[in-house]
Amino acid sequence: MLNAYVAPLVARYVETLRAHVRGPLRLIGSHGGRQTSAALGRPAAMILSGPAGGVIAARAVARAAGLEDVITLDMGGTSTDVALIPGEPLLTRESVVEGLPLRTPMLDIFTIGAGGGSLARLDRGGALVVGPESAGADPGPASYGRGGTGLTVTDAHVLLGHLLPEQFLGGRMRLDRAAAARAAAMVSADSLADARSIAAGVLAVADAAMERAVRTVSARRGFDPEQFTLFCFGGAGGLHAVALARALGMRGVLVPRLAGVLSALGMVLADTLTTAHESVLRDANALSSAAVDEHLERLRQVCLAEMAADGDGHGDETLVTEPALELRYRGQSYELMVAWQGSLDATAAAFHREHERRFGYADPARAVEVVNAHVAVRAVNRGVPLPELPRLAAALPMQTTAAWFGGQAHPTGVYALDALARDQRIAGPAILAGAYTTVLIPPGDTASIDRFGNVHVTLTS
Q1: Angle 262-269/49-64 helices, nearest 10 degrees?
Q2: What is the DSSP letter of 419?
Q3: For residue 272, what pLDDT band results from cuts at 50, 70 and 90?
Q4: What are the chain's domains?
Q5: What CA–CA distance (Å, rounded) separates 367 from 140?
Q6: Cα dist from 349 to 223, 284, 342, whole Å
Q7: How many CB atoms within 10 Å of residue 398?
Q8: What is the pTM of this model?
Q9: Which residues are 233's β-sheet partners?
Q10: Mean pLDDT across 55-61
Q11: DSSP H stretches of helix in 378-432
Q12: What is the mean pLDDT of the chain?
């Protein structure tokens, strides 16, 4: 039904793109892979394509930086997308879009309505609320000076000195601090000092929503966030990264050099991927491993045929097959996807271990049901090397400003993010202002720049 609903719109859009693109057209899917031509007829599989690109790039950049276990936080203008990468991104086949169930392979991404343009207001009880309503791109936050009147998260950062009017968008767009103050006054008709208190409250509420989102994708799935690094990107992610990671007790923060366009990088790095699945719905003890192998081989041939019809010349040596089963205890209404281990006994044992990790218990004596067989075939993308920075002298701050942290003003160095040198260390408080993102280093923390230009902050207890 979802495919039928959006197919005419997507088909027209894709045909317009085809007319302007030389060579084969590739659109990324919600599963994090470039789709074959045949998959373009199933547009529901592209619903989370943009965030999926960010997750794929995050895994590549984190690995290049020597990190395996990260939690991504992609904060843009209207929403924040959070995903867990315990070595590899997690895949789900069950999600909900506007209350409607969607059963198609997707990266396990959790989205909340908190972004730089999220509007702040007081609810009927007088409590401060942020989002999910957004100022959008037009007119945008009040500080954009385009007619917006509501107080947004971006305006709060302007009032607290975290975003400098003359440095925004690389100096190409000047922010209006007075308009942000007027927006704060509409929430609480007080003086400028009280406007800063309102701004601090807006950030606290937004941070709390993002903290809950990180816990949803980690602790509620059986992973301890303290064992992960927070990988923040998107235009607004770097402004919240360190405070959020510290609140969660995480190992540290990584903000990539390409934070503002990371999803685009992920689409360049993505493998071509095709998937197939079919229902089994049999007890594991009523099946043989040979019967499961037959299911999986049939699905593999479907995927290989789709790859072959794609016309990209994918050789067998570049194709990787990933068979899996969706399993559950008999009587359950949800299932877990477990990689096929070569036999039913070994796969069932892996299911028990995963159930124990995810839900805190397992019952090896209970009957296990095979719900679906699933196969993914990917043409591995050799990728592109990330450019490394030359060894240059450490960049000096462009200026010093007064920025507010914890209710107090601090003299804060402002650095050009793109000018920072390899191996340079910057003690907080500091503002790292880039053309498309800003990174905030609170007092007491220190940032370091790796050979790729990524910003690292190691947190101590």
Answers
A1: 80
A2: G
A3: confident
A4: 274-379 (3.30.1490), 399-458 (no CATH)
A5: 55
A6: 20, 12, 12
A7: 16
A8: 0.85
A9: 74
A10: 93
A11: none
A12: 88
